Amino acid sequence: MKREFLLPGMQHAEEADLSPEMAGVTSHFQKGFFEHAKAVGACRTFNYDVYKKLGELGFVVSEPLFRQLTSFSFVNRIQQHGETWFQVHQLLRRILRDSCADLLRRADEVLTSYYEQAGVDGTVDAIYHRSRLDWQAGITDWVKTLESAVDNSQFVLCRALRKL
């Protein structure tokens, strides 16, 4: 079966002989790739573990797809916690919030749970994603956490909360 298709990173459509099975795999791959490319737009920052967690939304997750995703020009490398993390360009994140609201809401639900389970290290991101789901609850959590951090002289946490 002749089928024209574009894979991520290709500039032009390519003609290929695809069996019906491969045509289905290609279609699934493309849909999954673009869905997880959109889903990471919910993240302030992400690494491979966060990307894998977003796989709970139902798309295919793999190291090659992660490398492909992080190679795009709209994804920046940053240093965080002594490791390399990634960040989708802020303008694109805003556009995705408007155009893919349902997908990003589901991503925020997954990420809220993920960061809540991470304990202290995930506090700020849990508050961020919770505020994306319910801004009033997010602000309440932010204020309570900031007050506690000030009372306990946790100034690193105070600075991180201020950056939200």
Description:
There is one protein chain. This protein is an alpha+beta fold and 164 residues long. It has one domain (2-162). The protein contains eight helices and four strands, in the order ββαααββααααα. It has helices at residues 20-39, 48-54, 63-70, 90-99, 101-117, 123-133, 135-151, 155-162, and strands spanning 2-5, 14-17, 75-80, 83-88. A two-stranded antiparallel ribbon has the order 1-2. It is globular. Mean pLDDT is 80; it is low at 1-19 and 21-29.
Summarize the structure.
With 164 residues, the chain is an alpha+beta fold. Helix content is 60%, strand content 12%.
Q: How do the strands line up in the largest sheet? A: 1-2
**Low-confidence runs of at least 5 consecutive residues:** 1-19, 21-29
Order of helices and strands: EEHHHEEHHHHH
**Overall number of structural domains:** 1
Shape: globular
Q: Characterize the largest beta sheet: strand count, sense, and whether it forms a barrel.
A: 2 strands, antiparallel
Detail the topology: elements first, then pairings.
Layout: E1 2-5, E2 14-17, H1 20-39, H2 48-54, H3 63-70, E3 75-80, E4 83-88, H4 90-99, H5 101-117, H6 123-133, H7 135-151, H8 155-162
Antiparallel strand pairs: 1-2, 3-4
Helix pairs in contact: 5-6, 6-7, 7-8
